[in-house]
Specification:
By secondary structure, the protein is an alpha/beta fold. It has two domains: 191 residues, Glycogen Phosphorylase B (Rossmann fold, 3-Layer(aba) Sandwich), CATH 3.40.50.2000; 174 residues, 3-Layer(aba) Sandwich (Rossmann fold), CATH 3.40.50. The chain contains 16 helices and 13 strands. Helix 9 runs parallel beside helix 10 and helix 12 crosses helix 15. The protein is globular.
Length: 382
Amino acid sequence: MNIAFDALPLMGRRTGIGYCMAGQVSAMTRSHPEDAFTLNYFAARHLAQRRAEIAPFLSGHVGAKHVFCPPYLYRTVSAFIPVPYGMLFGNADVTHFFNYIVPPGVKGKTVVTVHDMVFRAYPETVRGRTRQMLALGLEQSMRRADRIVTDSVFSRSEIVKYYPEHEGKIRVVPCGVDCERFHPVDDPSAHERVERKYNIQPPYFLYLGTLEPRKNLVRLVQAYAAYAEQRSDPAQLVLAGGKGWLYEDIFAKVQELRLGEKVVFTQYVEDADLCTLMSGALAFTFPSLYEGFGMPPLEAMACGTPVMVSDAASLPEVTGDCAVIVKAEDPISMTEGLCRLHEDAALRQKLKTDGMRRAKDASWERSAEQLYEVYREIAETS
């Protein structure tokens, strides 16, 4: 097959969508040297940087096609004037768009990944610009696509709830985890370096992700405050990740509860520090209100870190019985989860063992092969 990918999610500071694409594309191109792959991308600035960002994915049978145009200009214009994508990038047997939107005039078969329905289920937690883009373009995008890929059985049910007419097109392809990138770190000097760098005093609970409303961090801070009141030796709460939309409420809640140095905000964490930061945590917490998949808990499991997640959306599906599961909208339930994880060393050890086993089963190679079968399915139809 001749397979093309829209490379935009690989560029700039990657989000979960970009990491999902990177994992699937890397594994698929390694496993299928008999096929030709092309990374399509728009860019009008920072061209050397853009080429460097996709360079790790290129090889003898993986090339790139660049069109000199700002990517968001094309997306905005094509929403109103149907400038054919195929006119700019040519033909492929299958072209995959990993970020919700299929532009007009794609030649060959098309696949779109729709990661979740948060803009319909929790619109108040989504940035206005993103909400508007999806409200205007997603329905048309799903009509254009030959197949709709989503990350979990939960997300499939959500798409069917809001867009039942597309049920027959949807295929579930779970995300994976790179156990070479995410693995336990046992070197005490590495832990000391990272803790000093981010002003952390062990032991600590860790959240890693964007600071934004749907991550449910205000309730986590409330739960942590109640936990800390019950102990003379509370672990710190480390909230690691970049500031997203409406993050101010999280900082305000920490100040209101006078948690001071008990709560640490690291902001962006460098890739080189992720494994060490995760491995050093007493437990990893991920209490989101809504996730199409949620890769960070699986990455924490790969690092040998006990995990606590909310009972919302796809998270119980992703973690199975390898995590402490708490009620998403109940800070008391979260407090109880934090206390269990702090007090019960046997539970932490069990979660570590079970979680590492689950992470090893969730490889990007398996994910990529499931995605490849979707391509094969539509390529073989007329």
